[in-house]
Specification:
alpha+beta; nine-stranded mixed β-sheet; two-stranded antiparallel ribbon; globular
Length: about 350
């Protein structure tokens, strides 16, 4: 049976097949990867990940905590500088073995298509369901221990049985990255960048976006965050730097029409938060997340380290590069840290 009768206006549900779970990554064909490889001219690589203990503390997001690294325990003993001779006097080996408690979207990250859904009447019966990209359902395909609609326990384990981050990882996530340098045009000023401003930046820098591209926005947020050395001033960070105006419907159409695969930024949410006010009775708090993750299967990358690469590209009049950025192949997860690599 189909999972939906109604699909959201402006969505592409079903266009890649009724059971599609990777969205716009379908557009990263072998030809697109070859085109990306041809952007490599010098063989130089850039790490696009922050250290995963950034931003530091919980000032940016109170519910997301920094990683805790601890040694693996073996028979009550920590496996850190552990001489094998403790078990066998003939052995020379010394062992280090650790584990981590990691909030998957604390630092440099990918959002999976199961990260943001919506209360939407997919059945056409006048009652809104909890729905994600391509009609996958909350409670059936994406579950958690609590039923927030009834206030009770669901009795279900937590995880995504559809749209999990492992589906993204299985594609290898390699293609052409394109850099858009907001800092070069807006400095550190807090600007909600609308469609017209975005087009002026693209024209001035001769940036062209094509189907299958991974689009990166350098704002300068990453540089300021690093300078704060794990003690982020959330107020200053949130009141600085340009970011996309998620309420601008022309930007929505641009995302739809270009065929881009992902929007990536060095900031908190790619789009400016909080979003501009809406006059609707009910509306999305994260309009760009709605368009990308829920409607179009476009991925979002947040907290990426983009400034060193952006400066290097600008100095050479370039904007394109080979991007390799798979998430963890962790079944059931709805987001993942990443260590993306740009090769130029």
């Amino acid at each position: 049976m189909p999972r939906w009768k109604n699909r959201p206006e402006g969505s592409n549900w079903g266009d890649f097949g009724p059971d599609d779970q990777i969205g716009r990554l379908n557009l990263v064909t072998p030809d697109k990867v070859l085109a990306a490889v041809r952007e490599v001219r010098e063989g130089r690589s850039f790490c696009l990940s922050l250290p995963l203990d950034f931003p530091g503390g919980t000032a940016i997001n109170a519910s997301r905590k920094p990683p805790e690294v601890q040694p693996v325990m073996d028979q009550g003993r920590p496996n850190m500088n552990f001489p094998y001779s403790c078990n066998n006097p003939h052995h020379l080996d010394v062992l280090c073995d650790d584990q981590v408690l990691l909030t998957l979207q604390y630092s440099t990250q990918w959002d999976s298509l199961a990260h943001i859904g919506q209360e939407f009447d997919a059945d056409g019966d006048g009652v809104a369901e909890l729905v994600y990209y391509n009609g996958f359902r909350g409670g059936t395909h994406i579950s958690g221990p609590a039923d927030h609609q009834t206030g009770g326990d669901s009795g279900a384990p937590s995880g995504a049985r559809a749209l999990g981050i492992e589906k993204m990882a299985e594609t290898s996530v390699q293609g052409r990255g394109v850099m858009i340098d907001f800092k070069a045009h807006f400095g550190e000023e807090r600007v909600y960048v609308n469609y017209d401003q975005l087009m002026r930046v693209l024209e001035a820098d001769k940036v062209v976006i094509e189907k299958g591209d991974f689009v990166c926005f350098r704002t300068g947020f990453d540089e300021m965050l690093l300078s704060m050395n794990r003690q982020p001033d959330a107020k200053k960070l949130r009141s600085s730097f340009a970011a996309l105006d998620g309420r601008d419907e022309r930007i929505h159409r641009w995302i739809e029409e270009t065929g881009l695969v992902a929007l990536i930024a060095d900031n908190i949410a790619v789009e400016a938060t909080p979003a501009k006010a809406s006059t609707a009775d009910r509306f999305t708090a994260l309009p760009l997340h709605e368009v990308c993750l829920f409607k179009l299967g476009v991925y979002l990358g947040e907290f990426w380290l983009l400034s060193p690469l952006a400066d290097w590209l600008r100095e050479r009049g370039r904007s394109r590069f080979l991007l390799t950025a798979p998430p963890l192949r962790l079944p059931g997860a709805v987001g993942s840290p990443a260590t993306p690599v740009a090769t130029v």
